[in-house]
């Protein structure tokens, strides 16, 4: 009887150790999956932000090109009117106020 109890106890200990190893392996695999998922999510966020800023800049440039009179002064330009009544948006490269310094 004593030998049978020892065998049962040894088998139970072996099963317990294998269960602990299995839990550790499952946690390691799950953590690796989370790392991959987190990396993909971060890459998607970065690419999405870059795409947004790239498209936003194009939209702003298109809006300025379609309505320069509205956006000229807000963009730092000056509306110049000709003698014939036509006007255009001008940007100073070197503003006269900078020349007086």
Automatic annotation (TrEMBL):
It comes from the Bacteria. The chain crosses the membrane at residues 26-55. Keywords: Membrane, Plasmid, Transmembrane, Transmembrane helix. This is Uncharacterized protein. It comes from Paracoccus marcusii.
